[in-house]
Specification:
alpha/beta, four-stranded parallel sheet, 4 strands, 37% helix
Length: 123
């Protein structure tokens, strides 16, 4: 029980930012800030996030398909988050059509899957 309470305290002490299409999905949480719909994964956007925060990008779709935007994405994922103690949760409903399939599968991060396809990919 002590381990679980430490996790809860850890989360409650953090500033939580959420970007979602349905704000009502997170309406039961009292201490969150909703991100602007134009928020993307790049360094200028994350500089607006307080160090030590939690960021949740719900129903995330990688929209920019040019090489520079992918370089920015990877810079944030592989460097910025760690050096600013930001925890990022990306909720992806379709791993195949988001242009990040290989990067997500090869990333040294924790993946959780609910779908049968996602389970078979991670197996």
């Amino acid at each position: 029980m002590i381990r679980h309470s430490r996790i809860i305290i850890f989360i409650l002490e953090k500033r939580i930012y959420v970007k979602t299409n349905q704000n009502s999905d997170y309406s039961s949480l009292s201490q969150i800030s909703f991100l602007d719909p134009s928020f993307i994964i790049d360094e200028p956007s994350f500089k607006l996030i307080q160090d030590g925060s939690i960021v949740i990008l719900d129903d995330y779709a990688y929209e920019n398909k040019n090489k520079q935007s992918k370089i920015e994405f990877l810079k944030v994922i592989n460097y910025y988050l760690r050096h600013h103690a930001v925890v990022l949760f990306i909720v992806i409903h379709n791993m195949y059509h988001n242009m990040l399939f290989t990067d997500i599968i090869n990333a040294p991060h924790l993946l959780l899957s609910y779908s049968n396809i996602g389970y078979s990919i991670m197996r």
